[in-house]
Amino acid sequence: MAQVVALVPDLLFGSRVQADLTAAGHQVTLLAQPDAARAAAPAADVFVVDLVNEEVDGVGLVLSMVAGGELASTRTVGFFSHIDEDVRDRAQAAGFDLVVPRSRMAREGATLVTRLASD
Questions:
Q1: pTM of the complete model beyond 0.70
Q2: Are 51 and 79 in contact (CB under 8 A)?
């Protein structure tokens, strides 16, 4: 299946994402730091980014990586708090392939990643 890098500083939710994606057959590298994610994401098939965590500017990270051509062959999915429409809009404008509420990532994360990886 897909090589996935997940930038999810929330260890509890990150563990859940990692477990769901691993159970679906994906190889997952779970990271909490943007610098580590910047280094690892270009080699991944899919880059999952937590847009809920206020300490990490996931939108800015992906925007700069897209502009620098670092994600040319990597699909991106970001998840946001369902009440934060501004973050959703900024992520879509930044070039994320898919932006979903955190609750949808929790329910359908493996399916979403599988779909993105096969496109």
A1: yes
A2: yes
- Domain for residue 5, yes or no? no
> For residues 45 and 18, is the Cβ–Cβ distance under 8 A?
no
Q: How far lies 22's CA from each of 1, 58, 114, in Å?
A: 10, 22, 11
| In-domain check, residue 89 | yes
Please say if the pLDDT value at position 15 is more than 90.
yes
Q: What percent of the chain has pLDDT over 70?
A: 100
Q: From 1, 11, 21, 42, select the one nearest 106 (Cα to Cα).
A: 21
Query: For residue 67, is it within any domain?
Result: yes
> Where would I find the H helices in the chain?
11-23, 34-40, 58-67, 85-94, 102-118
pLDDT digits (tens, 9 = 90+) for 87-103: 999 999 999 999 999 99
